[in-house]
Each structure stands twice: as structure tokens, then as C-alpha cells.
Write a structure and sequence with these properties.
By secondary structure, the chain is α/β, with parallel strands linked by helices. The chain has ten helices and eight strands. Helix 4 packs across helix 5 and helix 5 packs across helix 6. The protein is elongated, with a radius of gyration of 26 Å.
Length: 305
């Protein structure tokens, strides 16, 4: 499992991008984004979100004022001014700071005071995410990998390394681009192309796999037959997609033989499956749903006479 130290939130460039990240991050946690910074009539800098009310709360949902701070230092008191006034101004029930770093000790003390009632002012609901908490949630949330891939591309490469290495073979496999020989498995970029035709001559009619072509992002083939299939390498190292590939190819071979146009194509297919298996054969802490509507179920098979 990847630890939080492998994720670097500084890859997010600037406050605007961090605001987009925050909106996506909170959406993954069940919040509904009602207003993004600058969208309100006053052009304010706060975000407004809604979350389902807790059991003890006397309302259907809680309106949350979200403050995004993307600094290379601690967030101080001067960075979070007039919290109470901002809550009243936006008619929100709670305040949530989302910080790529962490609040200063002075700001933490202010939060503690606001959580306690004072004179006629009721207790305020105040909470915040630090950078470490954000990274931990990214690793625990079902959709966290998508956010890591989108906003932290360099960290995502480390994520893939940590979650796909199985060490079932002595040597890590290599799949080279047909043109420039770059290893597609180094950064999990590129595609695997099934160059396929549909034969109508002879019996039985059906698809024929003419070639398997490994392509980096800069060298995609042109003029492929219409029956060809293109698959991103990053998807093929996912267990569910890998199993789908095997099922599909086995069905082709069983129902419309010969599926392979020659022994060289079959050799390429064996190498592809062998290489992908290295990344598929790793342990997982919980089942992972594949992309799209694919649902894999174990078939019931009866053995014996």
C-alpha cells in the first residue's frame, strides 16, 4: 500500500487548480458543491457545499462554508479572517478549511474558541483537512486514484508502482513500442493495438487477429482495419480488465478458430498476457469495481462426467 509520503500536493499548480481539486475531493466524500469560489453575486472567494445532516442535527442537510488554502507554509490567523461574519453572510451552518499544508497553532486555538459558545454567540461547527489528512483520504476513498491521476500525475506513477508490483517473476517484464522501443510499462503510458480483420471467406467466418502492436503515445498506428481494438496499457493492468481480455480472447478462439493468423501473433499474445499478469497478480485489501458497467461474476462450472 502506498503511504502518504509518496503523494505531493505541491504538484497542484496555484490556488485556482487547488479549488477545482477541493471540489472534486469533497464530492468524492459525499458533499454536494453548491457554489464555487467567485460564482456568487458578491464574487467572494469561499466555496459553499452541502452534506447530509448527522443523526443529532435537526435539519436535512448542513450547508458548509469551505475555505481553500494552498500554501507552502502554515495557514495563519491572518489568512482566515472574520469566520463568524462569513458564516452569517453566506447563511451556512458549518465552516470547513481545506489546507494543503496545516493550520498554525494560533489558528487552531481560534478554531477551538469558536467551537465553544461565547456570550450570545452559539458554538460553531468548525473543522479542517490538513495536507496529511487529504492524502490519507485519497488513498482510502474509492475514487481517490482518479484524483491522484488527474491532479498529481507524478505521484500517480509512484501509486501505480506501489500498487501493481507483484514480484512474481524474477525480472520485471518489458513491453516495447513497435517504433521507438520505449518501455510502455515504465510509466504505464501507451496502448496495445489488436490489428484485426473479419474474414467472410471460408468456414467458420469470424475475426482474425493479424498482429498485436505496442504503441507509445507518440507512435500510434494508422490505417487500421475497422475491426481493430485499441486498449490503454493502464487499463490492462487492472485485474477486472485483464480478466475481460482473457475471456474475450478465449471466446474468439473457441467459437471462431483459428483466431490467430499465425504462430508469431500467438507468441506476441503469450508475451502480452505474461507481462500483464506480473502487474495483475498483486494483493488487494478490498475488491475494486472496474470502470464502466462491467461486472465480473464467477461462472458456475460442473466438473466430471
Amino acid at each position: 500500500m502506498l503511504d502518504t509520503g509518496k503523494l505531493d500536493l505541491s504538484e497542484i499548480e496555484g490556488g485556482n487548480q487547488f479549488e477545482h481539486f477541493t471540489a472534486d475531493f469533497l464530492s468524492c466524500l459525499g458533499y454536494e458543491i453548491l457554489q464555487r469560489p467567485g460564482e456568487g453575486p458578491d464574487g467572494g472567494k469561499d466555496m459553499i457545499a452541502a452534506r447530509p445532516a448527522l443523526a443529532h442535527e435537526q435539519r436535512e442537510q448542513t450547508l458548509v462554508l469551505v475555505s481553500c488554502k494552498h500554501y507552502g507554509r502554515a495557514v495563519g490567523i491572518g489568512d482566515e479572517e472574520n469566520i463568524v461574519d462569513r458564516l452569517y453572510e453566506h447563511d451556512c451552518d458549518a465552516f470547513l478549511g481545506v489546507y494543503s499544508s496545516h493550520p498554525s497553532q494560533a489558528l487552531t486555538h481560534r478554531f477551538d474558541r469558536l467551537r465553544a459558545p461565547f456570550r450570545r454567540r452559539p458554538a460553531m461547527e468548525i473543522d479542517y483537512f490538513t495536507g496529511e489528512e487529504i492524502k490519507r483520504r485519497l488513498l482510502e476513498t474509492a475514487d481517490g486514484e482518479r484524483l491522484i491521476r488527474q491532479y498529481l500525475p507524478l505521484s500517480h506513477l509512484g501509486y501505480l508502482r506501489a500498487t501493481t508490483e507483484s514480484f512474481v517473476f524474477e525480472r520485471r517484464p518489458v513491453i516495447e513500442c513497435h517504433e521507438c522501443k520505449v518501455d510502455l510499462l515504465q510509466k504505464f503510458e501507451g496502448t496495445i493495438v489488436y490489428k484485426m480483420t473479419y474474414d467472410t471467406i471460408g468456414a467458420p467466418n469470424g475475426h482474425r487477429l493479424q498482429d498485436i502492436i505496442a504503441c507509445c503515445t507518440a507512435h500510434q498506428p494508422r490505417g487500421l482495419p475497422a475491426a481493430s481494438i485499441i486498449r490503454p496499457i493502464e487499463q490492462l493492468i487492472q485485474p477486472a480488465t485483464f480478466i475481460q481480455l482473457i475471456h474475450q480472447d478465449m471466446n474468439f478462439q473457441a467459437l471462431r478458430p483459428p483466431f490467430f493468423s499465425g504462430i508469431e501473433v500467438h507468441r506476441k499474445w503469450v508475451h502480452l498476457v505474461h507481462s500483464l499478469f506480473y502487474f495483475v497478480a498483486r494483493g488487494r485489501s478490498q475488491p475494486v469495481q472496474p470502470d464502466g458497467e462491467l461486472l465480473l461474476k464467477q461462472p458456475r462450472v460442473k466438473y466430471g462426467l
